[in-house]
Write a structure and sequence with these properties.
By secondary structure, the chain is of the alpha/beta class. The protein contains 10 helices and 12 strands. The strands form 4 sheets. A 6-stranded parallel beta sheet has the order 2-1-3-4-5-10, sandwiched between helices. A two-stranded parallel ribbon has the order 6-9. The longest helix has 21 residues, at 79-99. The chain has helices spanning 17-28, 47-57, 72-77, 79-99, 137-157, 183-196, 217-230, 247-257, 282-288, 296-315, and strands spanning 8-12, 33-35, 61-64, 104-108, 161-166, 168-170, 201-205, 211-212, 214-216, 237-239, 245-246, 263-267.
Length: 316
């Protein structure tokens, strides 16, 4: 058990979507010494910048959330960038954390690391039983290297590195950019724009049959803080809500909540991605007492309300 209240903590990616919520969760747990490096000052794909960050911040704990991320379209367009930048950031941050004597390194991976045809619900033991879905394999494998590196460093150096595997996240402050957003913000924006333009239909990728699990971002942030305080083992841990919903059901629900009443068409020439995603979340509850608290519909309503306020200001 770590009392994080008095620790110096670096949160890479702390100005981003999950990062901002994680910083606020740390503050709610009494943390006062939090450093959020910005890319303009520390480009974490460059070793000199990583070294400088550790000299400047002198962290006792590092929570690594910085990542190059996006939906299926972004992963298909720039797989090399997703592979390289995620790999080098993680590798250098952990190596220099070890050299600097950091007490604990919290690596945050991705559900995209799981094999394409993992039995549902995904158990941590299945992580190596196949190749990830081709649409995001470079990203998923790059992030999974954090797990390998952390386990190797624990064995050789006694370095306290843990690895968390969050499911797809959503919530207030998500990325709604048309080119790089994930499925929930992309669908919310698509429905709102179609409603405002009185368009008769929206077109969605694939055929709607894949299933996904989603976790409200504030719940994920709380899980990260609890793991930072209470979890010190080598085995990776799933972070999720323990349910699945089909993409078709998701689209129908978002259309209802955004009051879009047009037709929903499917472009089956576009990829579906992984057929099913749903996590076994028993380890997180047993190991550090985490259970998701926000119902999916409540979380969607909050996300839509927040984005609608931003949308209304832009449209004035």
């Amino acid at each position: 058990m770590i009392d994080t209240g008095g620790k110096r903590i670096v949160v890479t990616g702390g100005a981003g979507f999950l990062g901002g919520h994680t910083v606020r969760a740390l503050q709610a747990h009494g943390c006062k010494k939090i450093v959020v490096p910005r890319r303009s000052q520390y480009d974490l794909t460059r070793e000199a910048a990583v070294e400088q960050l550790y000299r400047d911040a002198r962290p006792e704990i590092v929570i690594h959330l910085a990542a190059v991320v996006g939906g299926i379209g972004a992963n298909r367009a720039t797989p090399g960038r997703f592979a390289y930048e995620n790999l080098v950031m993680g590798a250098m941050l952990m190596e220099h954390a070890r050299r600097a004597g950091v007490e604990k390194f919290v690596g945050v991976g991705t559900i995209c690391s799981y094999p394409k045809f993992t039995p549902v619900p995904f158990k941590e033991e299945d992580l190596w039983n196949g190749y990830p879905a081709e649409t995001n394999a470079p990203y998923g494998i790059a992030k999974k290297m954090l797990l390998v590196q952390g386990q190797a460093y624990r064995e050789q150096y006694g370095f306290n590195a843990i690895h968390l595997l969050p499911v797809n996240l959503y919530g207030p402050g998500d990325n709604f950019d048309a080119e790089s957003s994930h499925v929930i913000p992309a669908l919310i924006r698509k429905c709102l724009e179609a409603r405002e333009r009185a368009e008769p239909k929206i077109v969605c990728w694939g055929d709607g049959t894949p299933t996904r699990e989603f976790l409200y971002v504030e719940d994920c942030a709380e899980a990260i803080v609890l793991a930072t305080e209470r979890y010190d083992r080598a085995e990776p841990v799933n972070i999720g809500a323990g349910f699945e919903i089909s993409i078709k059901e998701l689209v129908d629900l978002i259309a209802e909540l955004t009051d879009f009443r047009g037709q929903i068409a499917w472009d089956s020439t576009k990829p579906n991605g992984q057929p099913r995603r749903c996590l076994n979340v028993e380890r997180a509850e047993t190991a550090f007492g985490f259970r998701a608290r926000t119902s999916f519909e409540d979380g969607l309503r909050r996300t839509i309300e927040r984005y609608t306020r931003v949308w209304d200001k832009r449209c004035r």
